[in-house]
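Just wondering, does anyone understand these tokens?
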Amino acid sequence: MHTITILGDGGLGGAVAADARERGLTVRILGRPADGRHLPAAIAGSDLVIEASRGDAVATNVASALDAGVRNLVIATTGWTADRSLVEGLLAGHDAAAVAASNFSLGVALFGRLVDAAVALFGPVEGFDPYLVEWHRRTKLDRPSGTARELAGRIVDRHPRLTGQDDLEVVSIRAGASPGMHLVGFDAVGETVELRLTARDRSAYATGILAAADWLDRAPRPAGLHPFDPIVDELLARPAIAA
């Protein structure tokens, strides 16, 4: 992998571009075109495309990348679940592979596993009510965030006293410039237990996105969408992890 194109010139795209250039990669970063669709000619020659724009542009951007001949993609955008079937069909039709996640931070991935363990401990205990709070910058469009939706799903699926998403209290805050905070708590009459993860900047997301890009580049992957979990498992298996 020598040349990557990043679709999206916002904070996330910029963080990924900076990290990739430090690694010696050739990087092209494209902002949103006026007509809403990137020309395949602008993407052609890329070994991999990273989608880091906005949810309503994902399907169109994936289509443009595939038309340009790209067969490896990382989708780091949230808010496109309504187009998931369309994206899966595009990838299958072009024999292309993509890694997609609501959050590419290793800390968030491990946080999810901590939440699983906490639900297993507190779920059966009567009186501890679970809740979730997430806080992002004022300009973030989706509410709740993709990460919050994923955490909520993990809690509901594993909690013996919750029958659906409506049973879980989820609070979204959109204010200031916070790159992301997620808090999962369990509250009882006499005490509260909380797990909290706070992002200081987007560098953690960039590290995970490029790890996913490396994973796609190392070996041919089956066509379709792949989760971040196999990459996380590989990172955990290494002798040392850069924190």
Remarks:
- The helical segments are 11-22, 40-43, 58-67, 84-93, 106-122, 146-158, 203-218, 229-237.
- Residues 56 and 80 are 6 Å apart (CA to CA).
- The radius of gyration is 19 Å.
